[in-house]
Amino acid sequence: MIGLLKEELRLFFTALQFFTRVPVPMWVGWSPDQLNRSARHFPTVGWLAGGVSAGVLLAAMQVWPAAVAVLLAMAAGVMLTGAFHEDGFADSCDGFGGGYTPERVMAIMKDSRVGSYATVGVVLMLALKFQLLLALVPQGAVVLLGVIIASHTLSRWAALCVMATLPYVRDDDSSKSKPIAQGIARGPMLAATLVAAAPVWWVGGQLWWAPPAVLATAWLAGRFFKRRIGGYVGDALGATQQLAEVVVLLVAVAEVRGPSWI
User: Where are the membrane-spanning stretches (predicted)?
Assistant: First the structure.
């Protein structure tokens, strides 16, 4: 039992060092197989990322206006992950926006330069997150904490759904995501689903529609990737995560506001 727990802890730390800038113990090590098996812990990393962002937001609100606190929370999340997912979203905007063939799309994604599609896409995405988080501030600490954590766990689960249903299509060895391209088995996927959905039970009614909305987002994203490039690449997973994170926030704000007829 102790050996099993240590191995799960090793896999969690493996996922943590891949998706964040948090230092991990030296004994964790690294190997492609180890990274592939750590996929089940992607939503668990979301608990940490969401918890840090929410904690910064709640702490900052004790000193500064809500808008400043939201910006500080967003900055903390970006610093924690090194803008890992945002970079994938930006590359996807450039690739799918400027490429017309699968080869050209993936070549643009690999280019380190930032184009107009990426710039506009990231600005709009961050602005949308800012406005949605600001709209949730009046709901109180418990709801805010739960929604932010859920947006991080469910969005990473969405990326897993894409991994589980599509083939990996980049064949060069330089890709950082190639070691996790083998997908995920049913058992680990079920465990990841439970971890990802846990914040929904915590928040309750304001998030009941979030899991099906995120699943629909992952399905639509997967269909788009399949049609355009025949499967997924690492940048596409980052784009899926960012889109799903926004979807969770949209659902939460929609539940708070309710229907409005003019």
Answer: 12-30, 42-60, 66-84, 114-137, 143-168, 208-225
